[in-house]
């Protein structure tokens, strides 16, 4: 959904995965003919012209994030040893879909910036990202990139962004709460009914323990709900003769809303259900809910390293299928590095080198190793993402897996998770506005006793269509 959904891997990626090919710095010399009958003397070598200085503005971090900025400075220094003609400015602006248009119009956007999966086609259509197809195709590691993660920024066969990390939505369970209640864990190949059954058994409002914690405010509420829309076989939108048409007002959408209504009617969610992303994860970390939905390992990270829950008391499940044997479809999203199309050709080429420099390198593995060991020294656990920018089958992927197996403070995912889950990319056009409107519908479901679900969904679909989707220009 948004950049904050990325876990520890994002921090490493944003500060480690940053640029590099090599440039030609050859020198040439000429020797003048020696005068006749005189001892020849070497002429002064003609120095090759210095490489043209190229200045790019790199995305940095807010001033209070000193450690991250220090790491960024170290990486800039490493990069400049390879490319001494590179100069850097820094800009701590963080991507905001409401601000990017202003930044582009005022020509004040950084040369490269980080955005998220929902923004792919919007940024491409508005010409706010550069086409990096040529740079990508000539890059030695292009074939090792995870095709699924790359997909949101591949538009009409051209590449516009480099994935940093990604997630497929999951549900994290607190095994300790199940054990305390004497309740068996549901099968990992579970269904909506299995989730409801488990939530009913664990739910204990008197003790402030909810069976299930959905996010209930902000666009993350709509983001959460979309997983059930997908699992029921629905979709957010489609293209029809060059127009974006909303299709979430469907039988699948109605079934997903009915599921949310059951959660509310049976009092299976927190009494204070208006929880944003951080609120929901904190509630889970505090033991105030048995299950929470979020991107990949982020709930486990918060619960273990902030809430003090043992890593052995947590397990990550795929999204439940609508019916037994169905797909465990969850929203696929992530973070991407893109390049400002208003920068000149030299800046764009340097920015691509900067972005990809430490991908597939020992620097990345060593930084991961250091992060794991630093956490171990602080009695903290490293939570890897189960899906990464690289293909697991690549040589680099195998090295990464081997590294993780050497430490006992690394959270491990059940192999069934990776075998069962199915990722469906986020909506490619104005997803954030769609999420926000669906959040309003979800709040109606959670506050109105006899809400007309079909009417509420229909009204939301009409509003999103007329106010947002109809205004999208697809080229």
From TrEMBL:
Question: Which InterPro entries does the UniProt record give?
Answer: Bact_solute-bd_prot1 (IPR050490), SBP (IPR006059)
Give the keywords, sorted: Signal
Q: Which residues form the signal peptide?
A: 1-24
Presence of keyword Signal: yes
Q: Does the keyword Transport apply?
A: no
Q: Where is this region: Disordered?
A: 24-45
Could you tell me the superkingdom of the organism this chain comes from? Bacteria
Record protein name field: ABC transporter substrate-binding protein
Q: What is the organism of origin for this protein?
A: Paenibacillus allorhizoplanae
């Amino acid at each position: 959904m948004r950049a904050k959904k990325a876990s520890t891997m994002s921090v490493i990626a944003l500060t480690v995965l940053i640029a590099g090919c090599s440039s030609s710095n050859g020198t040439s010399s000429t020797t003048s003919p020696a005068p006749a009958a005189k001892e020849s003397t070497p002429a002064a070598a003609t120095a090759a012209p210095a490489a043209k200085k190229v200045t790019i503005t790199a995305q940095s971090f807010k001033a209070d994030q000193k450690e991250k900025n220090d790491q960024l400075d170290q990486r800039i220094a490493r990069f400049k040893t390879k490319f001494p003609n590179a100069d850097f400015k820094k800009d701590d602006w963080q991507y905001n879909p409401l601000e990017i248009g202003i930044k582009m119009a005022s020509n004040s956007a950084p040369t490269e910036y980080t955005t998220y999966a929902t923004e792919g086609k919007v940024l491409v259509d508005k010409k706010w990202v550069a086409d990096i197809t040529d740079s990508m195709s000539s890059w030695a590691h292009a074939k090792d990139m995870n095709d699924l993660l790359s997909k949101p920024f591949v538009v009409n066969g051209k590449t516009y962004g480099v994935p940093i990390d990604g997630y497929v939505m999951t549900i994290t369970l607190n095994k300790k709460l199940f054990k305390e209640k004497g309740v068996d864990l549901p099968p990992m190949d579970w269904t909506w009914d299995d989730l409801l059954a488990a939530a009913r058994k664990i739910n204990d409002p008197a003790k402030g323990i909810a069976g299930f914690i959905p996010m209930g405010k902000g666009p993350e509420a709509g983001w959460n709900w979309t997983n059930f829309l997908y699992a029921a076989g629905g979709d957010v939108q489609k293209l029809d003769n060059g127009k974006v048409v909303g299709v979430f007002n469907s039988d699948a959408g109605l079934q997903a809303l009915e599921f949310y209504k059951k959660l509310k009617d049976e009092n299976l969610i927190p009494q204070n259900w208006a929880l944003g992303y951080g609120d929901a994860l904190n509630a889970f970390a505090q033991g105030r809910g048995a299950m929470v939905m979020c991107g990949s390992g982020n709930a486990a990270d918060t619960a273990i390293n902030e809430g003090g829950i043992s890593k052995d008391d947590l397990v990550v499940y795929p999204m439940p299928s609508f019916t037994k044997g169905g797909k465990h479809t969850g929203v696929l999203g992530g973070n991407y590095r893109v390049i400002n199309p208003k920068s000149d050709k030299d800046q764009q080429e340097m920015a691509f080198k900067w972005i990809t420099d430490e991908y597939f390198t020992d620097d990345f593995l060593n930084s991961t190793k250091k992060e794991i060991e630093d956490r171990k020294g602080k009695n903290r656990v490293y939570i890897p993402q189960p899906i990464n920018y690289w293909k697991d089958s690549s040589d680099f992927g195998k090295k990464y897996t081997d590294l993780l197996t050497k430490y006992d403070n690394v959270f491990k995912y059940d192999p069934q998770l990776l075998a069962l889950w199915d990722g469906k990319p986020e909506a490619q056009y104005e997803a954030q506005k769609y999420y926000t409107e669906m959040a309003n519908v979800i709040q109606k479901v959670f506050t109105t006793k006899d809400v007309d679900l079909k009417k509420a969904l229909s009204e939301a679909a009409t509003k999103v269509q007329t106010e947002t989707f109809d205004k999208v220009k697809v080229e």
